[in-house]
Design a protein that fits this description.
Two copies of one chain form a homodimer.
Chain A (H helix, E strand, L loop, with lengths): L11 H8 L5 H5 L1 H10 L1 E3 L5 E3 L7 H13 L2 H9 L26 E2 L2 E2 H21 L12 E5 L6 H17 L5 E5 L4 H9 L6 E6 L6 H16 L8 E6 L12 E5 L12 H11 L1 H17 L9 H15 L4 E7 L6 H13 L17 E3 L11 H6 L6 E6 L9 E2 L2 E2 H18 L16 E6 L4 H22 L10 H11 L5 H9 L3
Parallel strand pairs in A: 5-6, 5-7, 7-8, 8-9, 10-11, 10-12, 12-15
Antiparallel strand pairs in A: 1-2, 2-15, 3-4, 13-14
């Protein structure tokens, strides 16, 4: 089936959607109606997760209109085109294959003369083999001693996703006996970042992963030199302590500076690379290849759900459509991601990149201007911490901010205390339940300072426990949500031309080839 | 002088401001005009910092109108009333005295029968004395061994500010020989938070600080029990390992559960408490009382500047007014805080609480509804990391997001490498300079996908190095900015009634006293 790429505001189903009567969330969520919604407005996800959208400003009429929009915008067909290997990244003329790192969703995809699924699986195996040898002591430092720490050097997608995934599984791995090595991350070009990480580790027993697809990322190459210097100063041979994750065409691919090189390719954007070698090397070293494989398995299962044409069986597509409704019809500018799980402390930072870099665009996929808003601001912190911070504004501020909660029935370390007749985990879960209802229903008070207007929409993804499979499913959900929203907005979610100008100007500053304001700013900063 | 508390939209100067011709930022910041703006649109701050607003959408006409607004809204007079001890927190009927923890800005302030400045200074001295004894080995664990780690137990303002300040000075302290003890933080009621921190420290040589003004914060008391259990299991006497920072009227004040108790009071809101004992105990233990005193000194110097009636000499007031102009006249909904300093990695999270909890209000200080927007969304991550994450949306997204950069000429650890003819620190500074100009001026490209519209406003605070004084000044700047904005919006920036409803409902869930949707959500989360 041929797909048609049309702007959102040209779709009949979109103007129909705008006309559907809005939902009064307070009355919908009050009493028996609220209870019914919580029971019914729920879609199963993979790995025991579920997506509950009871507290969103939708009802059956709006859901019907969203389904029509999904049909007319051909969301399923576009996803199919993507995973079957069409050139979906029109700006850079590239395929988009990150789903293929975790499963074969459709046809065999050939590119660069190879079966790409085989290529990704093979790299995963090579990484697994390397990690196993490090763990068994077959690959060691020069003295024949085991490596105890792995340090990822990368920025943006080579940092945020892998770091968030590592933190998400660290405690789970410790409890379940899967913890192999401590991982650390160096990302910022600020020299204090690399210095502090290096000062805090046992360099002699550390293996470093240099991650850069192009092999030209300034921050990453600078930090590589930083690390190489530190290794030399410690009397160590840097090439015995460093591996690379890069593309086969990069200058890093066949360098004798590295113990080994593992490959990804141009069909995997940085922010979608956690399931490629970019996440694979560090996670396999930290937790073992089986844990990484389970993480991929979870993502693959969730990807399968994203193929469902029925939006009520496709949580990523439904989440995407509700988000578009909130952004374009209801006019909300941002979304807060609020995981009630300390392990997901950096998950919102990863989603911030995933979403804002993918869909923060003002032109459609053909480079034509568009007349509607696209990607929202994404921000968030774990609950209950956020409750004692910015929730004041979420409850009583002048703008409405849609909320995306995440919660788990069980903790990861399963170490708890019972205070005032409840465990900490129960308190945590009670708080997220309470917040959803407080935001949706509000509470009248004659003292307006204590009045809660309510009508503030949220959804929640609930799981049993944050384990590798659940984490994979969670990641896939958001990747696919962002992809579907990009399809609806008719934008290219897979390039990032907006990051180029700053790089060009920074080089000019360093080369002292500036004029006007830039010269003065350079002086101000004593460059 | 009697002050008048009027809503923003009743002020003549505000309607005048709305009429002033808008600034075309691209043309203003291009060529010689841009260079002149960078040189002239700058206000010195304390401790070698400066606030540069060249890339904001203001010109001399708008600055004049903002000065008139400051006059009519009596910002200076209101600040004077505040520091002289009037009941500015009308909701809770309390004085607002956090500035008094670092200096005497005006009249002697008597409350609860004591000179409050003396009270705060005395608590600071008691903390200094305690910290010195811990460092000298006069106060030890039961075996007479020195404490090596300090762990803060607190949430919200008892966590975010102190944690951000600790991270901001950790590397500076290590370089300058001021590093005394490692600090850790337990905040979330998620049991995995406390478990992980406890698993990562040497409990026998750790001193814990329990921080709760009321002594009733559920998360904090739960985490106290968590820690007490862990100490008992290790065969240790918890009361020899724990101190409290609380109010004199709290149940913690005279408990034999603690080695010592230090006091703050109801006149210091949690989010403004970093310069009280809440920040003082952990920072004095980690870095020594002299470092904490220098931090207070920096804040006090910046507070003095906030007394200036001339907005061009008062950086906090000017920053506040420009923010109101952006929010209410230009209609921007959020502000990104972007420190080009890894040490400030959690400073945006602290400002997120400071700003959004203070000014996320929909009623004025008399509890009457208001018809204009108030506090914006605040979010941010350190540069250059953010450049590889959400900057795509900032440059090319459909909404304009004002930016607040922070940069320093020198790194903290002063350990650097020279790659491609520049140090990492120079690259860091070149990047922030480049970003400001890229955002302001943009760059035309016939390929609209590579086109940068520009016109995206920013300011930058520049300093020599992030040391304790500079950090104090930086903190004070933002506290006072938020305060002045609250005055302009005629809201009470010092209460947080919006956090109450969630607490009440969470208790109902735990007591199984729910109905409707809340019952169903509780089931969903298996409570």
């Amino acid at each position: 089936m041929m797909v048609n790429w049309n702007n959102l505001d040209t779709l009949k189903s979109y103007s129909e959607l705008e006309k559907v009567e809005k939902v009064d969330l307070i009355s919908a969520m009050t009493g028996e109606s609220g209870a019914e919604r919580v029971k019914n407005y729920q879609v199963p996800m993979a790995c025991g997760l579920s997506y509950n959208y009871a507290a969103k400003e939708v009802d059956d009429n709006i859901l019907k209109a969203l389904a029509n929009l999904a049909d007319e915008a051909q969301l399923s067909e576009k996803f199919e085109a993507l995973y079957n290997g069409e050139v979906i990244n029109t700006g850079e003329k590239r395929l988009v294959l990150h789903q293929l790192t975790r499963g074969q969703l459709g046809d065999k995809v050939m590119a660069d003369g190879v079966d790409k699924r085989e290529f990704y699986v093979n790299e995963q195996k090579r990484i697994a083999d390397f990690a196993n040898k490090v763990h068994s002591g077959e690959i060691t430092n020069a003295k024949g001693e085991k490596f105890t720490t792995v340090v990822q050097i990368g920025i943006g997608g080579s940092d945020l996703g892998p770091r968030a995934m590592y933190l998400a599984l660290e405690n789970w791995a410790k409890r379940t006996g899967n913890f192999k090595m401590e991982a650390r991350f160096i990302s910022n070009v600020d020299p204090d970042d690399a210095s502090a990480v290096l000062a805090g580790i046992d360099v002699e027993h550390s293996v470093f992963i240099l991650v850069s697809k192009s092999g030209t990322t300034l921050e990453t190459l600078t930090n590589e030199s930083f690390v190489t210097d530190a290794l030399k100063k410690a009397g160590l041979d840097a090439s015995k302590h460093m591996i690379a994750v890069t593309s086969q065409t990069s200058p890093l691919a066949k360098s004798d500076r590295y113990l080994e090189a593992f490959f990804m390719d141009d069909y995997i954007g940085g922010r979608y690379s956690s399931t490629s070698g970019v996440g694979g090397a560090v996670l396999s070293l930290a937790f073992g290849p089986e844990v990484f494989a389970a993480f991929l398995e979870g993502a693959a299962s969730e990807d399968e759900l994203a193929k469902q044409k029925d939006i009520l069986k496709n949580p990523a597509m439904l989440d995407a459509l509700i988000g578009v409704y909130e952004r374009n019809v209801l006019g909300y500018d941002s979304t807060a991601v609020l995981p009630y799980s300390q392990a997901l402390s950096r998950f919102p930072a990863h989603l911030q990149q995933l979403d804002m870099e993918s869909n923060g665009k003002s032109v459609n996929r053909f480079g034509e201007p568009i007349d509607y808003v696209t990607g929202p601001i994404i921000f968030g912190e774990p609950g209950t911490n956020g409750q004692h911070s910015f929730y004041q504004l979420l409850h009583q501020g002048t703008d409405i901010i849609p909320l995306q909660f995440i919660g788990f029935k069980n903790s990861q370390l399963q170490n708890d205390v019972n205070i005032q007749d409840s465990t900490s985990q129960q308190k945590l879960c009670a708080n997220v339940a309470a917040q959803i209802v407080a935001f949706a229903c509000g509470k009248k008070d004659e003292n307006l300072n204590k009045n809660f207007k309510g009508g503030r929409p949220s959804s929640i993804i609930v799981g049993d426990e944050l384990d590798p499979k659940a984490l994979g499913a969670l990641l896939s959900h958001f990747e696919n949500k962002v992809m579907f929203q990009g399809f609806v907005w008719n934008i290219n979610s897979f390039d990032q031309e907006g990051v180029q100008l700053g790089k060009v100007l920074a080089k000019k500053v360093l080369a002292h080839e500036t004029d006007g304001a830039l010269t003065e700013y350079a002086k101000l900063l004593a460059i």
